[in-house]
Class I SAM-dependent methyltransferase (Pendulispora brunnea), 197 residues
Amino acid sequence: MLSKSARFEMKGPPTTSEDFDRAYRKPVTFWGDIRTPPEIKAMARGQGSALELGCGVGRFSRYLARQGLRVTAVDFSPVAIGKARASAIQEGLQVHFLVGNVTQLDALDGPFNMSFDVGCFHCLDASAQRGYVSEVFRLLEPGGIHLIWVLDEPPSGIALSPRVLETTFGSGFALQDARPSRRRLVRSHWYWLQRRA
């Protein structure tokens, strides 16, 4: 007999804020991370401010805050943000966690020195991806790096590759690096995109 979490996984990934709220009410999510990826750790060598898009329970934002960065993190699940805030308070960390839609972040002003996303962008449809790119461009300082991890064949159904990412992020960003990954044992990539002036 399948476990509850396996049955949930078989129904497909959550897509709405309410779906994610239900998932984050569980003790563990099937996409949750225990370790901070080395790509995120490398960001901690920088200084200043960082923006995380689709932060979930905020593990990576809290890691960067512990390294001395000023961090703002956004997720559209109030349950996830509630857990993220509680964990930050428990650790004595100053992280600005915000319930919001990554395609429309009117409540935020930049510029941020860097930004990152581990698994949010690939859940968006084409229209939402355009809104996301516009907001990252608005909020990231010229020359700033946006680090993004995406599945090659994501839940959105839009296959992602270096060429697709270059096209989607358009003239506002230069693709600095693309590295294949087997994170979560699936074909995926890390991308480093630099915001143009």
